[in-house]
Amino acid sequence: MLQQMRDWFSYLKWVLLVIVAMFIWWSFDPGGGAPRPDGAWAARVNGEAISTTAFQSQARRLDSTYQSLLGPQYTQQRGFLRVGRQAIDSLIEMELLYQEATRQGVAVSAEEVAEAITRDPNLQENGRFFGLDRYRDLFGGNRGLIESYEAQVRRGLIIDKFRSLIQDGVSVTDAEVLEEFVRRNEKAEVDYVVLDPARMGLPAPDEAAVAAHYEANRDRYSRGEGRTGRYVLFNAADFAAAVQVADADVEAAYNAARSTRFSQPEQRRAAHILFKIAADATPEATAMTEREARAVLTRARGGEDFAALARKHSQDTSAANGGDLGFFGRGQMVPEFETAAFDLAVGQVSDLVRSPFGFHLIKVSDTRAAREIPLDEVRQSLRDEIQRTRAREEIARRSADLAGAAAGGRLEEAARARSLEVRDTGTVRPGEALAGVAASQAVTARMMDLALGEVGDPVATPSGMVIVQVTGTVPPEPRPLDEVRAQVRKDLEDGRARAAAAEAVRAARGSRDALRTVARRFRAEVKTQSEVSRGASLPGLPPNPLLETQIFSLAPGTPGDPITTPSGIVVVSVKNRQDPRPEFETRKEEVREGLVRQRRDRFYRSVVRRLRDSGEVEVNEALVRSVDQA
Predict the structure, then answer these.
(1) CB within 10 Å: which end of the chain, N or C, has fewer?
(2) In this structure, is the dihedral angle defined by the CA atoms of residues 460, 462, 463 and 469, taken in order, positive or negative?
(3) Is 449 in contact with 472 (CB distance < 8 Å)?
(4) Which residue spans within 402-539 are E strands per DSSP?
(5) From the CB of residue 312, how many other CB atoms can be counted at a distance below 10 Å?
(6) What's the average model confidence in pLDDT over 59-72?
């Protein structure tokens, strides 16, 4: 029996090697060379065709990769990932690089090709190349297949060599490394005030002031240039209603996803309070943070409101939500956090939990037992999902057909020949939707890019696929005051509030505690946040580059100019900034390596953009959309 198993695994390995080799050859099909009929190419790059076969193979590889990474969430995310667009862009990039490399005389020798083949793990056994005889047998002894495969290996080596030539010339100076190190590691302790214009005690603007502000800023409240046109809608609901789905199809879809999508593991809902600890924190700093955390733990276990404590003390972005993290299952949190959360009873507060992020206080508020969702609960939703998928496929096919027939401005003629209804768009402007077509702003945006009489490619909307033709242009016009009065009033109030805050800041500068003087003036609370790094946001505020600039440029104790944010008008004052330069020497090479890698990638991307902008690239958009909208 053991010998039979050994023989079976040896045979299976041989079969897998054949499959791998053939997959490699087919997936590297360059698509150039021989003439092809219309529609048999995915893109043309300076006259060289990228074949449909190569495009579909690349799209399948991306599809498989994302499915492995995202699991059951992939179905919902696929439309945003646009694997078709990613696939064609990567193939175009490789073709551009190959053409430029050969133009500049980059070449590889027969020895380099042979070495690459013999070092391919798929062509090795026990860590060594398995020999020329088996290599030839993989291709059935077909010399043409072998030469095509080796040509693709050569092509890949030329591209890799050219990429290395591009990137190897990139370097950074010691001064640039130091600047990057400081930028990444400098941290500040910040006092800040968030002022609500409605609570600053300022008089409300009267109608005359609102009208005057409107007249002085009419351009801000105008409608942009508009378009008129006609369109055809392939209604998704109508197509889905016509699709018949058998019970067996529903059951097959359920069984395929039963162990993933319809299996819900045990979950916890928890809130936490995080006290951050830097990766390079000293034992003294860690001990101080632990004392702060234990003081808050005592208050939480003493009955104080956990959410209120989180809003005040947590250094995590969840602080604004009272520390609430929602429901999560095993494998979603760092191990230390997960273990503690799943060991707690509902309502219980943990002891201090140390993780790579710092100290956590955790409170579990709810739990869900593991369960498998039965078919009857999801039967109709699965049926609807299959209907929509099949409808999308049919809509993609029929809309691509109409777009091709309507090219050159023949939308009405092509639609009439297919018994399709043509509708009038009316006047539409940027940001507006077509009447009766929900969330169709993308169609309007497409109209802004079309020339008079031009028919656009199909545009996806929640209502279905839309093909539009522009019939006229409409000049910009101001929106009436009555239509924008609320926005004008808010802009005026925000401007006055910012001016009042700026005046208070100017008057307070130079005083012993300028920010608290400003806060008292408007009955606001001064908040403090320590360990603020670049790219981070202050609790309760969205990221704001103006705030970040002030935090890392203001002299300590000097309040900055007021900044308007969606959360209110913010005034910051830096208490102190930690200078990370004493640690520079120990981490210099690590930072240099990361900075060089970043700049190499940026330079490489700029070369690819230049090649694409200066070249002639034509994409079979209908083919790409058929993959993205499937």
Answers:
(1) N
(2) negative
(3) no
(4) 423-424, 459-461, 464-474, 477-478, 527-533
(5) 12
(6) 82
Annotate 574-609 with DSSP letters as a single string: EEEEE--GGGHHHHHHHHHHHHHHHHHHHHHHHHHH
- d(C-alpha 377, C-alpha 382), whole Å: 10
What the block records as the tokens of 192 is 């800040």
Domains 2-168+613-628 and 187-220+482-578 are alike in CATH topology: no
pTM score, two decimals?
Answer: 0.50
Three-state DSSP class for 188? strand
For domain 2-168+613-628, the CATH class is: mainly alpha
pLDDT-derived band at 245, boundaries 50, 70, 90 = very high
Residue 618, both tokens? 């034509």
Q: Tokens 């010691």 identify what position?
A: 174
Kindly report the three-state secondary structure assignment for every residue of 104-143: CCCCCCHHHHHHHHHCCHHHEECCEECCHHHHHHHCCCCH
Domain range 187-220+482-578, CATH class: alpha beta
Contact indicator for 344, 280 with CB cutoff of 8 Å: no
Residue 630, pLDDT score? 63
Q: What is the pLDDT of residues 271-290, one digit of tens each?
A: 999 999 987 788 888 999 99
With a cut of 80, say whether residue 141 has pLDDT above it. Answer: no
Q: Give the integer Cα–Cα distance in Å for 185 and 160.
A: 34
Average pLDDT value over all residues in the chain: 87
Please tell me the class of the 263-372 domain: alpha beta
